[in-house]
Design brief:
By secondary structure, the chain is of the alpha/beta class. The protein folds into 2 domains: about 150 residues, Rossmann fold; about 70 residues, DNA polymerase, domain 1 (Orthogonal Bundle), CATH 1.10.150. Helix content is about 45%, strand content about 10%. A 6-stranded parallel sheet has the order 3-2-1-4-5-6, with helices on both faces. Helix 2 crosses helix 3 and helix 5 packs parallel to helix 9. The longest helix has 18 residues.
């Protein structure tokens, strides 16, 4: 059965589109190892998911600030609050991965709408899109602040695709996190996992529609799947 809504390719933002390498350098400037980033960001997500499971909502920047305060204090960093004020702005300075522009251009050439769906703020995402020269390639930006539910809650995915005038069965999610692709599939979407920070997909998570180390390949495969589904 053909859908009367336009197919949409949905992209996670942090780590999928924008690299956190700038955050590694920021931690190094505070005298911490570069891999502190790999401790901080998972802890941030863990605390956000735990809070979300209780039914509460804490915005990204507040959760990031709290997680940083705990991490920096535990690491013995002098004046943690001052360090936080230097680290948090880095989230507005992230660089896009090298395959992003080609992948988005490929999606637009295939006449798909592009939705950036973030656990961060819409304002910061808009700034990153502009800074990286992607404004002409992104049709919609949706932040969980609008629905007050962290991904991977099912309602967050539904709210995001509805904001773009579509529905889950006519959309595909691309993300670098197994929990994100699993959340999208639970909401009724197709999903592609791009290998960024992890060398393998988490075996306990719902298997995605496809996986690749290259964003362009995922756009190609998922756009074709959506086209095929739309013709039946």
């Amino acid at each position: 059965m053909m859908s009367d809504t336009k197919p949409v390719l949905v992209f996670d933002v942090i780590e999928t589109i924008f690299s956190l390498e700038a955050l590694s350098r920021s931690f190094q400037s505070e005298g911490l190892p570069a891999h502190t980033k790999d401790v901080f960001f998972p802890q941030l997500l863990r605390d956000a998911f735990a809070t979300s499971a209780t039914g509460a909502y804490v915005p990204f920047v507040d959760m990031a600030r709290g997680t940083l305060q705990v991490l920096l204090t535990n690491a013995g960093v002098p004046s943690p609050e001052s360090a936080i004020e230097r680290i948090l702005p880095v989230f507005s300075q992230l660089e896009a991965h090298s395959d992003v522009k080609e992948a988005l251009t490929h999606a637009k050439a295939r006449e798909f709408d592009i939705l950036f769906f973030t656990n961060g703020s819409k304002q910061n995402t808009e700034a990153l899109v502009e800074k990286n020269g992607l404004s002409d390639l992104v049709d919609h930006i949706y932040s969980i602040d609008a629905c007050r539910q962290w991904k991977p809650k099912e309602g967050a995915y539904r709210a995001a695709v509805e904001s773009a005038g579509s529905e889950p069965r006519n959309c595909a999610m691309i993300a670098a996190h197994a929990w994100d692709t699993a959340g999208a599939m639970n909401a009724g979407m197709l999903a592609g996992w791009v290998c960024r920070q992890d060398p393998m997909f988490h075996p306990a998570m719902t298997k995605p529609t496809c996986t690749s180390g290259n964003l362009v390949e995922l756009v190609d495969w998922l756009s074709e799947r959506l086209r095929t589904m739309n013709r039946t």
